[in-house]
Amino acid sequence: MKRIITSEPDSLIQYLKKIWEYRSLVMVFARRDLKVKYAQTLLGLGWTIIQPLTGLFIFTFFFGYILNLNAQSLPFPLYVLSGLLGWNYFSYIVFQGIGGVQESGHFIRKVYFPKSLLPLSKVLVGLVELSVSFLLLIPLLMWYGEGLSWRIIFIPVLLLFNTLIALFVVFLVTSFSYRLRDLYHLVPFVMYFGIWITPVFFTIDVLPEQLHFLWFLNPMASVVEGWRWCLFSDWAFNIRFLPALLCIIPAFLFSVVLYSKAESKFSDFA
After folding, report:
1. Could you read off the pLDDT of 165-184 as tens digits, one per residue?
2. b/e for 17-45, b at 16 or more Cβ within 10 A?
3. How many CB atoms lie under 10 A from the CB of residue 95?
4. Average pLDDT of 125-140?
């Protein structure tokens, strides 16, 4: 079958069909990333446990012990770890996905494929790290005598929204950063600020009441709260988080369209 490749941007449906057609490359890129990441390291996947474990210790010590913050009905370490699961997965995809085009510049100049496969491969690597980090919950649950909620069956749905938010940021930033390289430097600042309006290691009571709206406008806040709702039976989900969560679906599709129109220029700047 003869294939014609043009510089004309595809429609959303056409672009999604191309992604499906080239889907096998996602696994190829993911395997490459895993091999590179853990090559010549003594601990290998152990580093995936060390990262959330370090964050758990630091946040629990400073916010739970020194500042004596409470986490409503949850032991503070469980509150922090459940927040880190969604946030670390999100931040990994964002940081790695935005740099994916530059990392593969030598490859995309030689071979045609939808460039969105590069950040999609980071999703698979992120899922591997998330699965390993999830294991940290087991000893903590046993230590505090907590059990998992039956609502854990909804984690795949929550994980989908977690992924869409991360890819939305990646596609949106990458669509403009080939012309505005300053965006690459801006993203870390936005991410570092974002964790302070996301309930990862403190509750909404810490913020002044006039700033509470920032949490409900933040889709990652709804995802982090959703993780706790899925994991713990006595955790309630505030319905005011729902609009920000649902808005991510059209926002993600919009970012895909932007990305598909811009990716033909990536090879000139990668």
Report:
1. 999 999 999 888 767 667 77
2. ebbeeeeebbeebbeebbeebeeeeeeee
3. 17
4. 88
